[in-house]
Design goal:
Blueprint lengths: L8 H13 L2 H4 L10 E4 L5 H6 L1 H14 L5 E9 L3 E11 L2 H8 L2 H17 L4 H6 L1 H6 L4 H13 L17 H6 L1 H11 L15 H5 L7 E6 L11 E5 H5 L7 E5 L2 H6 L6 E5 L5 H4 L10 E5 L4 H13 L4 E2 L4 H6 L5 E2 L13 H12 L6 E2 L11
Parallel strand pairs: 6-7, 6-8, 8-9
Antiparallel strand pairs: 1-3, 2-3, 4-5, 4-7, 10-11
Protein name: DUF3322 domain-containing protein
Pfam families: DUF3322 (PF11795), JetD_C (PF09983)
Organism: Halomonas piscis
Length: 386
């Protein structure tokens, strides 16, 4: 017969450690009288359990008699049993103080370190007091990083939206790789300490850290090939330039191809008054948003025939509504049926900017074969079709 699972001292330790991991014991340090004395009920023998496991129950009660100390006080209750008579059993444990709870799990030093760190942080940035209360374990885990974090916050408070590359910052004791590797955390803290006008709240996430807090960003670049030798730039036909410079080009060509596969773009044949842009997936629409001169050009997009390729096409039309698809129709799909693959994570939402024929292809991808979405990758299409 298995031994009954009544609460033991090790279970109380686990309960206290769980409260520590939730930050409750660290937060209790601000107003400990609201939490302590802390009473924790014990799982104890029932009347039938006492009769069935009487000797185990006696050993269990002795276990709690030995556990009594200044840090932990069992609460006893006498029960009358019809067959066993009067027996005194522990029903709860009282932990008198926060210090007693910390001693039980060996966290006194950790708690002292947290309160010292929190005091220093809030002395320098009182507005971070609430953040420290919400995330006390994070405060403690970052003990070695706080000098650099606080130095960075102080510099940003004095220089909001600095208009520099992060690499240009010279903050004593802080190397710029530290800032780059702690952008997520710094974002949490900068949102608290900076004035509203210093934060671009239209952007979120680590990837937009620079834009959100006014740093210069690595320029987005666009690669293109000029397919007509008469329109080369200083004799160059394969060029990669910042997106802002591309927006100002205004090349005297009439046709612009946008192609997702790099090798396909490199293999594009010479074409009068034309150029090919190396695609950027979902980013291509944003990259071309300021290239207003493209609105007067014939624009053709060639991507994979799958849900994501059609989604990129739909999004491109938010910027260039007159753009057309190239070799992405039902005929091309069916002509290459022997090269079909399967999309591992298909997009299944609405694509409002597709033409009726493209919508038919979008539906076909999910209906030609049961339980899977088809795809035809661009590089599988025979090049002679171009």
């Amino acid at each position: 017969m298995s031994q009954p699972r009544w609460t033991r001292l090790s279970d109380i330790h686990r309960q206290l450690e769980k409260r520590w991991q939730k930050g409750e014991l660290l937060r209790a340090g601000e107003q400990p009288d609201e939490v302590f004395p802390l009473r924790l009920a014990l799982k104890k023998p029932t009347a039938s359990g006492l009769l069935e496991h009487f000797h185990d129950a006696r050993r269990w009660a002795t276990h709690w008699q030995c556990a009594t100390s200044q840090n932990l006080v069992p609460e006893w209750r006498t029960v009358n049993h019809r067959q066993l008579g009067r027996n005194t059993l522990p029903v709860a444990v009282v932990i008198p103080t926060l210090d007693a709870a910390l001693r039980q799990i060996g966290r006194q030093d950790d708690a002292r370190r947290y309160h010292m760190l929190a005091a220093d942080i809030t002395r320098r940035f009182p507005v971070l007091a609430h953040w420290c209360r919400r995330k006390p374990l994070k405060v403690l885990a970052l003990q070695a990083q706080w000098p650099a974090l606080l130095a960075t916050l102080a510099w940003m408070a004095q220089h909001p939206r600095p208009g520099l590359y992060i690499r240009q910052l010279e903050i004593p004791g802080v190397h710029t790789k530290f800032i780059e590797s702690h952008r997520g955390l710094l974002g949490e803290l900068l949102d608290q300490i900076l004035p509203e006008g210093a934060i671009d709240r239209s952007t979120t996430g680590v990837g937009h850290f620079e834009q959100r807090y006014g740093f210069r960003r690595r320029p987005s670049r666009l690669r293109l090939r000029i397919l007509d030798s008469a329109h080369r730039l200083a004799g160059l036909d394969d060029i990669e330039i910042p997106v802002e410079q591309f927006a100002a080009l205004r090349l005297p060509i009439s046709t612009v191809y946008i192609v997702e596969n790099d090798i396909t773009a490199l293999a594009f044949p010479p074409t009068p008054s034309a150029m090919v842009i190396f695609g950027q997936g979902y980013g291509i629409g944003r990259q071309l948003a300021d290239a207003h001169w493209l609105k007067d050009k014939e624009v053709l997009y060639w991507g994979d025939i799958d849900t994501h390729g059609l989604r990129i096409l739909s999004q491109l039309r938010d910027t260039l509504p007159h753009s057309r698809s190239l070799l992405m129709g039902a005929a091309t799909l069916k002509d290459h049926s022997h090269l079909w693959g399967t999309e591992p994570s298909p997009y299944i939402g609405e694509l409002p900017n597709l033409t009726d024929d493209e919508q038919d292809v979008y539906r076909l991808l999910g209906t030609l074969e049961p339980d899977r979405h088809l795809r035809l990758e661009q590089e599988h299409i025979k090049f002679s079709a171009l």
